[in-house]
Amino acid sequence: MEIFRFQNQDFLYMLLLVPLFTGIWILNIWIRNRKIRKAGNSTLVKGLIPEFSGFRLNLKIILQICAFIFGVFMLARPQFGSKIEEVKREGVEIIIALDVSNSMLAEDIQPNRLERAKQSISRLVDRLENDKIGLIVFAGDAYTQIPVTTDYVSAKMFLGSINPGIVPKQGTSISSAIKLGSNSFSPQLNESKAIIVITDGENHEEDPVKVAKDAAEKGIIIHTIGIGSSDGVPIPVMVNGRKEYLKDHEGNSVITKLDETTLKDIAFATGGKYVRASNSNLGLNAIFQDISSMKQQKLDGTLYSEYNDQFQVFAAAMLILLLIDFLLLERKNRVLGKLNIFDLKI
After folding, report:
1. pTM higher than the cut 0.85
2. How far apart are CA 282 and CA 186, in angstroms?
3. What's the rounded Cα separation, in Å, for the pair 169 and 16?
4. From the CA atom positions of the chain, what is the Rg in Å?
5. Which domains does the chain have, with CATH numbers?
6. Which of the 8 DSSP states describes residue 277?
């Protein structure tokens, strides 16, 4: 089965000019005929300009409009999907659980914890080839941002829109992220499953170490990245366009500290690695090396279509019409007009 599409669909909006051109053409014919009628008897007036050909003029305009239409189709790049194949991949499935709580806005890691994490994840995606990647965001609860996929372009696109405002419940529930991540892998995959948790580790909910042990029983390895300062820093917030710092109900500045102990326990409980992030290195490279050494499994085949451009047909049609328009004179040819080959005398 062949699939047809236009690669550059935006150019098709130019076809909206065709009715405008047609309207101008019809208006021009009406004005021309009106002038002839005003000049006198139409038969006599046409006799004064015997070389004029309304048919030729109209034909040239039709050729030009048709050439314009073919030109638009050419620019829109029509394509046929000539080949649909199933691509077999071998790799691992990686789910990144990214903390998007307000504490991730702290600036002890520049430009802030969250932006630094997003930059590093983007670079990690650039290194992937056959592996699948998924993205979970969490704060007081966890949410799937990107299901496991090999569509790395979409993964990077969604990554750019992540901010604390996309989750309705604040807080930090690492256990919710691990639970959701454990249930997000492909059902048929028994091994080659890894979760990377990027957080400041200030867990406010259920014991994440116990949940991590349950994940380990399913063959899931959890790596953790601790991002932030263990000394504690305030959390910046924007109020009326001005940067201030988050305060509690008593008016005191809220201080966020990195909890390394919890993150180490989560990683060690599943055979994973804990890495402490810094301004120069978030730690994803070290974890990616461990993931690359995992056993590769056959992942679901991916259907894709290889598209072939067909714009050449429309380009050729446009050039032929323009050539005919160029060769076609607006006035009758005097020499051919004298032949009168259809004027038979008996």
Report:
1. no
2. 28
3. 47
4. 34
5. 3-81+307-337 (no CATH), 93-295 (3.40.50.410)
6. -
